[in-house]
Amino acid sequence: MDEHILVCLSSAPSNEKIIRTAARMAKAFDCQFTALFVETPDFHAQTPENKRRLQENSSLAEHLGAKIETAYGEDVPYQISEFARLSGVTSIVLGSSVVTRKHFLRKPTLTDQLISYAPGIDIHIIPDYNTDVNYRPRKMRTNQRSDILRNVVKSVGVLLGATGLSLLFYNLGFTNANIIMVYILGVLLTSVATSHQIYSLISSVASVFIFNYLFTTPRFTLTAYETGYPVTFVVMFLTAFITGTFAMRYKEQARQSAKIAYRTRILFDTDQLLSKAKNKDEILNAAAEQIVKLLRRNTVIFEVNRGEPAGLRLFRGSMEENNADTGNCQRYDLQRELPTVKWVVMHNHSAGATTDTLSDSRYLYLALRVNERVYGVVGIEAENNPLDASDHGILLSILGECALALENEKNAREKEAAMVMAENERLRANLLRTISHDLRTPLTTISGNASNLLSNGSSFDEETKQQIYSDIYDDSMWLINLVENLLSATRIEEGRMTLRTTTELLSDIVEEAVHHIRRKAAGHQLSAEYEDDLLLVRADARLVVQVITNIVDNAVKYTPPGSSIQITTRRIETDGEYRKSGKPDRMNTMAEIRIADNGGGISDEEKTRIFDKFYCGANRIADNRRSLGLGLYLCRAIVEAHGGTICVTDNQPRGAVFSFTLPLEEVTLHEQNNDTCG
Q1: Looking at residue 622, what is its pLDDT?
Q2: Which residues pair with 648 in a beta bridge?
Q3: With contact defined as beta carbons under 8 Å apart, do 366 and 378 qualify?
Q4: What count of other Cβ atoms lies within 10 Å of the Cβ of residue 196?
Q5: Which of 187, 544, 572, 665 is the most buried (most CB within 10 A)?
Q6: Rounded distance, CA 155 to CA 508, Å?
């Protein structure tokens, strides 16, 4: 089993020596090292000096490589043993001042209790008599007159109320046992209402004397004739005092439980908020807001960019909503605090207020780090108010979660960038492979035909020459179309495709496209019909011709010879916002161009992807030339640039229909009548 050394944190002056000894042991064994602080219900009453010393010891343990942990409870030995058992601790390091019992009446020592609770764990005793001879963990005195007066008024009020109720019971004939219970209840209420155990003790003594004075025979004296009354008084006092003590203790435990629940909820909320954060800014803002909720102190966060602090965010230490506003930092002295921030970034260690490094700073700075990588620096205002050990532990947990979230966000960004780069490399490789194949075939054909004409041109008849010329022309036109598509795709990717729109007759644009494609579609029945010969559109005619040419070219490629390809134009009413017009969402009049064929059609799966870049589908072209998958991608880009839409549907009974829309251009004709006078 691996070694795991545990040292207990306290405010004792000798604790520093014990921590250093435990750190040397952990280094010698090269094992896990943990420092545990057990927060008891009365910890909040400790003196500022003790709290400061505890913070110093905690910082020392962290500096020496210990993981700081906090447990909560009144039974310190039990909390230590349970933590050790659950965490796999093999050795506990203690000081010798907690080992020896002064006399037999005192309760068992911490060592005895730890051996009883966890007999399988080694306990190492470090001599520390010289440093702790005068140390006593004193509580902070609260001498505010307002608090004392408030507690006295509450105690007297409860005691008077109990006495009045007891007199009522006495006049009604109730027994003394009932009256005693009333006073015990009064002591219990005093314990709950006051802030110190001394008031319940005084209330217990006063209750005994008042009961003796008012309700025992002879009345209105402090003497009692019955022999059993002294025992009654003692039992009454002990019952009242013990009840009040337990009430006070449970009140402190309830307060501590509420604090633990609040801190636990903050940790839970932090985990949820960080898991929902989508980028670095959201992660830092979520962590800072949770720190403000926990500590209610001014908090600053710096990002670290190339080893330098940047991106200051200030969060006000109030329960009101905080905004990370870099321009709202009037109270933050950047010139004074920046050297400390840079030191934390450089050394990957805490510094500033309440530490021994650059302690003149107003803020305590801690690194947002994963191992040796620093992602940011968090500053907590702590110039005159050091952090409690428990708050410091929760703060470190929040910072650890924040650092892990930043690490995951960085890894996700790098992974996404690597995937994009790999995808680009794959597409580039596919593109180069496809282009090289598609260029080689027509170039080989062109060079072969040209070589035949040069070598044997005189021996060919006219019909053979015309066929060779036709093949050279077809292959060259195919190459031109390929290059045009590549150039257009490049312009779209770089955002350099500009429209040179003019008012054009839609029928003229279609006729121009048919003229370009008719020779290639010689084996198909190509026709064009116009619902309105005078339909005007606002478009870049050259690009729209390319759209029609690409769609018809696909129909020629993927339909058998003899298939019909029909181009029709019409005016339609379409829902949606015409983006180029800037008009509100309403019914818009558009021109629709439909290109229908009666070939094999397109499957539903391919319809969703057919306009994607480099998508070629499963169909084969008759001449075995592979398509680059750019034609329909360019069609969609051109149509959408005009503010139209493009889609593919089924043709009935068979085939496919590609349809796209273009904005109409309304032209007003002004007729002028000239009257001639003879």
Answers
A1: 41
A2: 658
A3: yes
A4: 15
A5: 187
A6: 103
Name the strand (E) or helix (H) holding 241: helix 229-276
Instruction: Give the C-alpha separation, 207 to 185, whole Å.
Output: 11
d(CA 566, CA 110): 97
Rounded distance between C-alpha atoms, residue 377 and residue 366, angstroms: 6
3-state secondary structure 271-295: HHHHHHCCCHHHHHHHHHHHHHHHH
What pLDDT sits at residue 141? 52
- Whether the link from the prior residue into 13 is cis, omega within 30° of 0, is no
pLDDT confidence of residue 595: 93
Decide: 2 and 26 in contact? Cβ < 8 Å.
no
How many CB atoms are closer than 10 A to CB 297? 20
What length does the chain have? 678
H or E element, residue 649: strand 646-650
The residue among 82, 77, 70 whose CA lies nearest residue 34 is: 70
Contact 434, 628 (CB under 8 A): yes
Mark the ranges of the chain whose per-residue pLDDT is less than 50.
103-105, 131-134, 142-143, 319-330, 577-587, 620-626, 672, 674-678
User: What is the structure's pLDDT at 614?
Assistant: 67
Please give the pLDDT value at position 532: 84
In 3-state terms, the chain is what percent helix, strand and coil (to 5)?
Answer: 50, 15, 30
CA distances from 635 to 173, 487, 578, 617 (A): 104, 14, 18, 17
Are 37 and 389 in contact by the 8 Å Cβ rule? The answer is yes
Q: How confident is the model at residue 593, as a pLDDT?
A: 93
pLDDT score recorded for residue 657:
93
Distance of CA 547 to the CA centre of its chain: 45
Listing DSSP states for 513-559 in one string gives HHHHHTTTTTTSEEEEEES-TT-EEEE-HHHHHHHHHHHHHHHHHHS
pLDDT of the residue at 321:
43
CA distance 14 to 259: 29
Closest CA to 625 of 441, 446, 432: 441
DSSP character string of 573-616: EE-S--TTTTPPSS-EEEEEEEEEE-SS---HHHHTTTTSTT--
> Cα(first)–Cα(last) distance of the chain, in Å?
125
Per-residue DSSP letter, 654: S
pLDDT at 136: 55
Q: Which two tokens stand for residue 676?
A: 């001639």
User: Long-range pairs for 532-535 at CB < 8 Å and ≥24 separation?
Assistant: 532/569, 532/570, 532/571, 533/505, 533/507, 534/505, 535/505, 535/506, 535/507, 535/569, 535/570, 535/571, 535/591, 535/664
Would you say 504 and 539 are in contact if contact means Cβ atoms under 8 Å apart?
Answer: yes
pLDDT of residue 427: 66
